[in-house]
Structures are given as C-alpha cells and as structure tokens.
Design brief:
Length: about 200
C-alpha cells in the first residue's frame, strides 16, 4: 500500500500544473508583465520565466489565441511558450510540444489543446523568426525590476523597451547547450498536424 501511495505521489509530482502567475496587464488588455517569476516544475525539470518578462501571447497565432483567454489556466502555458519562443534555447518543435504538455497539465480541454498545438505548428514560425530578429537587434523582453510598474502603464511597449536594451537576463538561457527542460518536448505523444509546413525553422 505504501508503495502504491508513493507511486501516486511521484506521478502527481511529475505532472504538476503550471501555477497561476502574478501579472500586471498593460492598457491594451492583451499583454502583460510578470510581477514575479513563473516557476513550473514537471517531469523532473523546471522552467523559470523571469520576473519582468513581457508577454503578448503572440507565439500562439491568431485565431487560435482566442481559444486561450488572457487570464486563468489557459494563459499559463501560453506565457511559458512565449518565453521559450523568445529565448530559443529549445527547438521550435520542442517549445510547441512543451506548450501542449502545459495545456494538458493545466486542465485545458483536449480538443482545444490539440487545436492550439496545430496552430503553432502551422503558423508559429512567424513569431519565432520575429523574435530571432528582435534578439539580434538587442531588443529585450524582460523589464528591469525598478521599471515594472512604469512599464505596465505604457501604451507602446515596443517603443518603451528601447530605453533598457542592456537588461535582459533571458539572454543567458540561450547560451551554450540546450537546458534540460527542452527534453520535456520530446517525451509526450503528439497529435498529427495535417498540412504542417516544411520550414527552415522546425
């Protein structure tokens, strides 16, 4: 009986849902800044989205983004996905699979989760390439702690972030070998996506 109980606890620990983040929503109502780190531990790995990270859920293409409201359990996986698309420490395919895993573990309806996953496989390459260009131009997406309150009140974040281009701790995640959490995207069963584009960005 103790062995069974231990196995159940281990299983639950390995499949932990993404915690609810503390965010400040910007005036546009469509984007937000993390007030504290978003820490998701699952499958023996931990992903930490840093405090101050700006998310506009843009890594999930429209109209699939409409299936993930900007608040609640649906948005948690999208924030992690935005972060993975920004750092690009994992491959795009791994990031998309981690999005699916996060949605499943957060209790998102299976049909919705599969539809959103199909959407990012078909159209996520645009956000991936855009982020790559922005990183090459040293445009940050992590707001310095002292600027978070002010940043949450701006109407044009793209203009505002040019004032702190030297600050972006997320840059460290893209250096060197891929983080261990990238393997989370290689250990789940994925739905078949019909018409998935063959693109230089996998």
């Amino acid at each position: 009986m103790r062995l069974i109980a231990a196995a159940v606890v281990a299983f639950i620990s390995a499949c932990a849902s993404i915690p609810s983040p503390s965010v400040s929503t910007l005036p546009d109502g469509k984007s937000a800044i993390l007030n504290s780190p978003l820490v998701w531990s699952t499958g023996g790995e931990t992903i930490v989205v840093p405090r101050g990270f700006y998310t506009d859920y843009a890594s999930v293409p429209f109209p699939f983004k409409m299936l993930l409201p900007s608040q609640g359990r649906y948005s948690r996986a999208a924030i992690v996905h935005d972060y993975l698309y920004w750092t690009q420490a994992c491959t795009r395919k791994q990031a998309d699979a981690i999005l699916l895993r996060g949605m499943r573990e957060s209790g998102v309806d299976a049909l919705v989760a599969d539809a959103v996953y199909g959407g990012v496989r078909l159209g996520g390459w645009w956000a991936w390439k855009t982020n790559r260009k922005e990183r090459a131009s040293h445009l940050p997406k992590v707001v310095p702690p002292d600027n978070i309150r002010a940043a949450a009140e701006v109407n044009d974040f793209n203009k505002y972030r040019k004032t702190f281009t030297a600050f972006d701790p997320a840059d460290t995640d893209a250096a060197g070998s891929a983080p261990g959490y990238c393997s989370l995207g290689s250990s789940i069963t994925l739905p078949v996506v019909t018409g998935e584009a063959t693109d230089p960005v996998d």
